[in-house]
From TrEMBL:
Signal peptide: 1-28
Listed GO biological process terms: collagen catabolic process; extracellular matrix organization; proteolysis
Binding of Ca(2+) 2, residues: D187, G223, D225
Residues annotated as the enzyme's active site: E254
GO molecular function, one term: metalloendopeptidase activity
Pfam entry (one): Peptidase_M10
Residue ranges of every copy of the Peptidase metallopeptidase domain listed in the record: 134-297
UniProt KW keywords: Calcium, Disulfide bond, Hydrolase, Metal-binding, Metalloprotease, Protease, Repeat, Signal, Zinc, Zymogen
Native source species: Aedes aegypti (Yellowfever mosquito)
Segments traversing the membrane: none
Entry protein name: Putative matrix metalloproteinase
Residues the record lists as binding Zn(2+) 1: H197, D199, H212, H227
Length: 534
């Protein structure tokens, strides 16, 4: 797929933050160990104070308080530079600027916080009395965003609701209009990922990095994007960190970075570096000044400089359908999903997805098609080849929630934001024979949490953790009593229900009795999609 947008040349006044260009929010826990070489004593204003530990020096470098240097470079820093760094840390933590590593400062350095640097090297940010501009603004007034995926801990509806609320707040003072689209070429991509998720800034599991964002036009196609760590305990309206991380409080902060704002030393600001728990969700005066500086003072040339512009009304949020289609071979007519014959069915992140041709349908909890669907496969699975015209099988891995998509002799693994491999992989990676043309169906069976692959009159059991087939496979489909061969799809849900599909029929399978329930098969499109098919 073509990149989301081409990279722009950015001047020195919009260098983002340090050399990393990524904003990574998280809990920076600094263990207090011994002093590094060259710092056995530390004297400040004739007061003997604690020597900074190696971890404290790492903190100072990571957040821009000291210049980065070679390993074991602590001895090269002057005491004056370290004292100034401590004062700056205290300033950004809303503490008295004493330059002394007192208990409050040490606690501050171990507090939950956003991982973007607080001080740009050589003051490359646009620093004002209080707020700080981290980069240039967006060069347009209509910004599109795409929610690539969501956490099962808060759900898509809540993620969409809180992201819209955050966009609304920033829109009040920025003269920007934010529009949600179902297109991964949007300006801002919002999504959840775990560990290595494609942008070279891996998440680290629960309790540390919470999220990260990118400034406008930085990191090529990642400019403006916001990523949340799926492994965090995301909650709605969480008042205490021990109960979970308040999603909205992190989202509205990250969006500030996505619009070009850096951290502010003002405690009441949304852009204050340290995580404060649940926020009231509105911009502080400091935030308003910053976004005004970016988007109102330097408005488009068509706006007369002498004419003050009124604060815009809140924009109406509408979902815009994708208008342009790729110039690739495609179906001339939308496949009739009510005729059955699904290519694949999968329960992904707790929601049902039905694939047919190059399209997918997403269902509500009441098995009705969600608004805005169907869409093309690549509109949901960012980076999926647009010339692939069907998915044969799909399942979600247990150990990392990666979504495995099969088509013909190839497969792809999607981690929620990106594909783990830049190119398609052969299905022989699963230990399947080279003569196999395709996988008919795949699922993780809720009875034993094992992965099953079906093709023709055989099936295999695969160990996703070791990446190997279990012994004594393949086996005959006769073992699945009452289930036909040459399946179209199969899926199993956490409630213990297992479903098999063929043609326009489906079977509900009793995992304990190991046979279909009475009264099956039934018409699939009638029950799953609400179609009126006789």
């Amino acid at each position: 797929m073509a990149p989301k947008r081409r990279r722009h040349n950015v001047g020195s006044s919009s260098v983002g933050f340090m050399r990393t260009l990524v904003v990574a929010c998280g809990l920076a826990v600094i263990p207090l160990q011994g002093a590094p070489a060259g710092w056995e004593s530390f004297q400040t204003s004739n007061v003997h104070q604690q020597v900074p530990t190696k971890e404290m020096f790492n903190f100072m470098r990571r957040y821009g308080y000291l210049e980065k240097g070679p390993s074991q470079a602590e001895a090269l820093y002057s005491e004056e530079a370290v004292v100034m760094a401590i004062k700056s840390i205290q300033r950004y933590g809303a503490l008295p600027e004493t330059g002394v590593l007192d208990p409050r400062t040490i606690r501050l350095m171990s507090s939950p916080r956003c991982g973007v640097v607080d001080q740009m090297p050589h003051e490359q940010s646009m620093r004002h009395r209080r707020y700080v501009i981290g980069s240039e603004s967006w060069r347009k007034r209509k910004i599109t965003y795409f929610i690539a995926n969501w956490s099962s801990k808060v759900g898509e509806d809540s993620v969409a609701k809180f992201m819209q609320r955050a966009f609304n707040e920033w829109a009040k003072y920025s003269n920007l209009k934010f529009v949600r689209v179902y297109d991964p070429s949007a300006d801002i991509i919002v999504g959840f990922g775990s560990g290595h998720h494609g942008d070279n800034y891996p998440f680290d599991g629960p309790g540390n990095i919470l999220a990260h964002a990118f400034y406008p036009y930085e990191m090529q196609s990642y400019g403006g994007d916001i990523h949340f760590d799926e492994d965090e305990n995301w909650k709605e309206n969480s008042t205490h960190l021990s109960d979970g991380v308040d999603f909205y409080s992190v989202a509205i902060h990250e969006l500030g970075h996505s619009l070009g704002l850096a951290h502010s030393p003002v405690y009441s600001s949304l852009m204050f570096p340290y995580y404060k728990g649940i926020t009231q969700g509105t911009l502080d005066y400091d935030d308003i000044l910053a976004v005004y500086k970016l988007y109102k003072e330097y408005d488009e040339p068509s706006s007369p400089a002498t004419t003050p512009e009124p604060v815009p009304r809140l924009p109406d949020f509408v979902t815009e359908p994708l208008i342009t289609q790729p110039e690739l071979p495609e179906f001339t007519q939308m496949p009739n999903v009510c005729s059955g014959g699904f290519d694949a069915v999968g329960v992904l992140r707790g929601e049902v997805f039905i694939f047919k041709g190059p399209y997918l349908w997403r269902l509500t909890e009441k098995y009705r098609i969600r608004e805005g669907y169907p869409v093309r496969i690549w509109q949901v699975f960012r980076g999926f080849p647009r010339d692939v015209q069907r998915i044969d099988a799909v399942y979600e891995r247990e150990f990392d929630n990666g979504v495995v998509l099969f088509s013909g002799k190839s497969y792809w693994i999607f981690d929620g934001l990106n594909f783990l491999h830049p190119e398609a992989r052969p299905i022989t990676d699963f230990g399947l024979p080279n003569t196999l043309e395709k996988v008919d169906a795949a699922m993780v069976w809720s009875k034993n949490q094992k992965t099953y692959l079906f093709a023709g009159d055989q099936f295999w059991r695969f160990n996703d953790t070791t990446g190997t087939l279990d012994e004594d496979y393949p086996r005959s489909m006769d073992r699945w009593y009452g289930i036909p061969t040459n399946l179209d799809a199969a899926t199993s849900v956490a409630s213990g229900k297992t479903y098999f599909f063929k043609g326009n029929y489906y079977w509900l399978y009793n995992n304990e009795r190991v046979r279909p329930e009475r009264g099956y098969p039934r018409k699939a499109s009638n029950v799953w999609l609400g179609c009126r098919v006789a």
